[in-house]
């Protein structure tokens, strides 16, 4: 028997394949709209709420810990809103490099005229 794969997270540039997936709120249009606004995926804005509920999912990684409820089927508080890693920051998190570290390295490289190439990871080994 073939194992069913998880539905893809609809957050742009999220490549998580492990975390639990959550459906958009079904009976609260204001909360659903807040999810759509936060995720900022242009395709979602053009879909009807029923279509979003039936076809789109958001993974655990996009919810603050206080919104997660372990031991329940739903896994989220009713007022949960995705707020984490919504603008392509999953790539940085995946490699345990924060945007702040990269920005510090870039500003250092710009002031150092002897720097021949920019390597954002070399100073953090």
From TrEMBL:
<dbReference type="Pfam" id="PF05485">
    <property type="entry name" value="THAP"/>
</dbReference>
<dbReference type="GO" id="GO:0043565">
    <property type="term" value="F:sequence-specific DNA binding"/>
</dbReference>
<comment type="similarity">
    <text>Belongs to the THAP1 family.</text>
</comment>
<keyword id="KW-0863">Zinc-finger</keyword>
<keyword id="KW-0862">Zinc</keyword>
<keyword id="KW-0238">DNA-binding</keyword>
<dbReference type="InterPro" id="IPR026516">
    <property type="entry name" value="THAP1/10"/>
</dbReference>
<keyword id="KW-0479">Metal-binding</keyword>
<keyword id="KW-0175">Coiled coil</keyword>
<dbReference type="InterPro" id="IPR006612">
    <property type="entry name" value="THAP_Znf"/>
</dbReference>
<protein>
    <recommendedName>
        <fullName>THAP-type domain-containing protein</fullName>
    </recommendedName>
</protein>
<dbReference type="GO" id="GO:0005654">
    <property type="term" value="C:nucleoplasm"/>
</dbReference>
<keyword id="KW-0131">Cell cycle</keyword>
<keyword id="KW-0539">Nucleus</keyword>
<feature type="domain" description="THAP-type">
    <location>
        <begin position="1"/>
        <end position="85"/>
    </location>
</feature>
<dbReference type="GO" id="GO:0008270">
    <property type="term" value="F:zinc ion binding"/>
</dbReference>
<keyword id="KW-0804">Transcription</keyword>
<keyword id="KW-0805">Transcription regulation</keyword>
